[in-house]
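Risk mitigation, structural track. In case the binding assays with heme C fail to produce interpretable data, a predicted complex structure has been prepared as a fallback.
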Amino acid sequence: MDWKDRMTDWFRLAFFYGDNWISILGGILTTGTGFTLLWSWFRELASPHSASPYVGILLFILLPVVFLVGLVMMPLGMWLRFRKMRKAGTAPEVTPKVDLTSRHIRKVLTMVAIATGLNIALLGVATVRGVEYMDSSKFCGLTCHTPMIMEYRAFADSPHSRVGCAQCHIGPGVDSFFAAKMAGVRQLFGVVFNNYHRPIPSPVESLRPAKETCEACHWPQKFHGNQILVRNHYLDDEGNTPSITVLMLKIGGRSGEQNTGIHGRHIDTSERISYVATDERRQNIVKVTYRDDKGNLVEYFGGEAKEGEKPRPERKMDCVDCHNRPTHAFESPEWAIDHRITKGMISRELPFIKKKAVELLKVPYRTQAEGAAAIAKGIVDFYQTSYPALYRDKKALVDAAAAGVQDAYTRNVYPEMKLTWGTHPNQIGHQEGGCFRCHDGSHSTKDGSKTIAADCDSCHTILAQDDPDPKILKDLGTR
Ligand code: HEC
Ligand code: HEC
Ligand code: HEC
Ligand code: HEC
Ligand code: HEC
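Fallback model:
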């Protein structure tokens, strides 16, 4: 038998056994998705706009999976058919031998090898793209984790909106990637069966240590000096009078060999503070251990466990104990409105807008859509009935304000997720516990000789407080 017959035999065999619906479907799937993938990558090269999250799932996850399935189906179908026929005794007699010395057989084998190589390369690129995509913020926040829409919105509105979710939540390394994806699979079941926690619990315990996340970008040894903080608030009077607070925060850090100020006292390579809380949110702190500059351990006690609470495992203080909302900061109703008046989304010209807006925000609504509608209606109704002339002349301002208040609501409250004002307290100041969890003047050593500082000057100098027009801002040249 010469090579030609052998080849025809081989092909015949492949065609013969390949003639089954599994292999044919496999062939169609692989070529179809292969071309689609190639086409989408070329298109992306031509116009690198990121795809919408749902297109993303299709392109980066579904298509490669289908491609792989098709690839496996082809030989599988052949093998199944072969087995079935052998059992039935209908398999053809001739089983062609492969003569590797034949140049043409080698050619065919090379072709097969190249095709396989191409397929593997295609699959490799598809996998890398898929992994990249699964790590992207859009995927985390919008596609897979719809219950995290509020974290995504808060994130998109924060200084870290260009830092990926994965950079804080997953961190570097293959092990953390797989750990996160396994957790993701569990969460997927949660979403499918609709039995996940509402609101999503804060995962400080499962967060990577700040050393591996925050400190990859922020170098604690580099902090020093003071920082001016200007807070624009508005009173709830008719004129929405500005009430401005100016603080000089003693951030400090390391200067020379000294650790000073807010950062210097708490963050250090020797990890100097640990504490014991009695509740999950760590709002109630009963014991604080501090390594002083001489290396001695000082223990402060204060507070009391509430009914049913007991001391939780000791935790070393790190960045996230103060900066717990570096990117998912939820506002208070007052601050949400102040912030939007300052940004110009809500006009200060509208009488009592601050008071009315906060009032409407605080009403408990059943769903976000219901709340948003009621709020817009509430604002419009208020000006229509109480200030009809103004409403006639400045309807555009009123409508814009209604939209601004709606935005304040939808950015912070998700009744469907049981997320509302105050659900996720921010520990950075002392509005919601924060520094005063320890610096409340009641955390002292057993013998009472030392107390954690609580005087207003230890953390900041108040340069102006509740001042409609602070002189200090004029002196600084900002007004
Ligand atoms: C700058 C770091 C950082 C980035 C970026 C980040 N997170 Fe977080 N995230 C945190 C920290 C810290 C907490 C814990 C908050 C706490 O304990 O109060 C948290 C908590 C959460 C929680 C728990 C619920 C809550 O609000 O406390 C979810 C869900 C979450 N993040 C999702 C996301 C998603 C989705 C993204 C991307 C869109 C993202 N995170 C990006 C730092 C980050
Ligand atoms: C991938 C890099 C990266 C990581 C990781 C990161 N940050 Fe940042 N962070 C930034 C950048 C960049 C800015 C400055 C943003 C700006 O000025 O608009 C910033 C700003 C900040 C600010 C100042 C915010 C403000 O209002 O000016 C704080 C506080 C902060 N980060 C804390 C943290 C904490 C806490 C973590 C860990 C949970 C963290 N960051 C993780 C890059 C990062
Ligand atoms: C004891 C609480 C506390 C701890 C712990 C802490 N910070 Fe801060 N940090 C503050 C306060 C307070 C500010 C002032 C800014 C503010 O009020 O938002 C600040 C400011 C910052 C800023 C902005 C500084 C600037 O000059 O713009 C960054 C960035 C920052 N912290 C990162 C970190 C990182 C990273 C860690 C952990 C290594 C950390 N912080 C640990 C309380 C803390
Ligand atoms: C878990 C408890 C705890 C929390 C929360 C905490 N601190 Fe502290 N802080 C301490 C301890 C302990 C010391 C050191 C006390 C000593 O000197 O013996 C300290 C010291 C300080 C000092 C130095 C005071 C001085 O007189 O030398 C400053 C400033 C400070 N903290 C600011 C803050 C700020 C700002 C926050 C909130 C963003 C905060 N701390 C949150 C425990 C805490
Ligand atoms: C342990 C440190 C610490 C102590 C003690 C402390 N503060 Fe503060 N305070 C802060 C920090 C940090 C902020 C900034 C929080 C932020 O970034 O939102 C702040 C913010 C403020 C603000 C501005 C709040 C706003 O949003 O307008 C006022 C007012 C204020 N403090 C008053 C006081 C007074 C009065 C005392 C004394 C009873 C005091 N603080 C004691 C750390 C402290």
